[in-house]
Design a protein that fits this description.
- The protein has 11 helices and 8 strands.
- 41% of the residues lie in helices and 15% in strands.
- The two termini are 13 Å apart.
- The mean pLDDT is 96.
- The longest helix is centred in the last third of the chain and has 19 residues.
- The protein is of the alpha/beta class.
- The protein is globular.
- Helix 1 links the parallel strand 1 and strand 2.
- Strands 1-2-3-4-5-6-7-8 form an 8-stranded parallel beta barrel, surrounded by 5 helices.
- The structure holds phosphoenolpyruvate.
- The site of phosphoenolpyruvate has 15 residues, from strand 8.
């Protein structure tokens, strides 16, 4: 059974593509997905690529996002980027709390929550990443970890603001490793996330919330993952840099 929600397929380019490379790449990508209106297509690009990619994608089916946002409006935060800056550069979405940011840049559940609030207040849709690492799965505490991350990310987010929240379930052991969660494993955790949302906001909001799977999603496994009841799209790293593969994933989300 497919999901009842409109799917969102989001590419995460990570730290790849200079602005000139991005310009060429996004033109090729757009050509491959332009006829698809059945799902939302997003490319989350390095901040420096946002203006050119947003310009190239203006008026097309492809929307643009950032990969991180700071929680302050502005100020002495060298190297960070504010929500207003993202919006001004053409972003509509932003990834928050990706496991690479949690692992390498000290992102915590608390800062994920602050960044989520800042993104929403600026009008962005926040793609909030949660997911257990391998040792946590092996210890049997996946549900506990993911429920906790989800609850803390959503602290003080109002029911109305939930329209601007996407949760991406990304088991850390599946990111960039070629190891995908089985469709059943992924659906089970996405369902758990939906139950956490239902407990806080009620069933209608839980039913309306987009919950993506991410972790080595590719042209071969996307259809099976996206067919699961609780999986409403994908956050895609490696395969989002291969236009043919990304187009197959977009196609699978119809
Ligand atoms: C990601 O970066 O969010 C991701 C899921 O990467 P990959 O698809 O390469 O595993």
């Amino acid at each position: 059974m497919g999901s009842k929600r409109r799917m969102v397929i989001a590419g995460n380019w990570k730290m790849n593509m200079t602005p000139s490379e991005a310009k060429n790449f996004v033109g090729t990508l757009y050509e491959k997905v332009k006829n698809n209106r059945a799902c939302d297509i997003v490319v989350c690009v390095p901040a420096i690529d946002l203006p050119i990619v947003a310009k190239m994608c203006a008026g097309t089916a492809v929307k643009v996002g950032g990969q991180n946002v700071h929680f302050a409006k502005s100020g002495a935060y060298t190297g960070e980027i504010s929500a207003d800056m993202l919006v001004d550069a053409g972003a509509k979405y932003v990834i928050i709390g990706h496991s690479e940011r949690r692992q390498y840049f000290g992102e915590t559940d608390e800062t994920v929550n602050l960044r989520t609030k800042a993104a929403i207040e600026a009008g962005l849709t926040a793609i909030v990443c949660v997911g257990e690492c391998l040792s946590e799965r092996e210890q049997g505490i996946t549900e506990e970890v993911v429920a906790r991350q989800t609850k803390l990310a959503l602290l003080d987010i109002t029911p109305e603001q939930m329209k601007q929240v996407i949760i991406a379930y990304e088991p850390v052991w599946a990111i960039g490793t070629g190891k995908t969660a089985t469709a059943e494993q992924a659906d089970e955790v996405c369902k758990l996330i939906r139950n956490v949302i239902a407990a806080k906001y009620g069933k209608p909001i839980a039913r309306a919330t987009v919950i993506q799977y991410g972790g080595s999603m590719n042209a071969k496994n996307a259809a099976e993952l996206l067919a699961m009841d609780n999986i409403d799209g994908g956050l895609i790293g490696g395969a989002s840099l291969k236009p043919d593969d990304f187009a197959v994933i977009v196609e699978a989300a119809q």
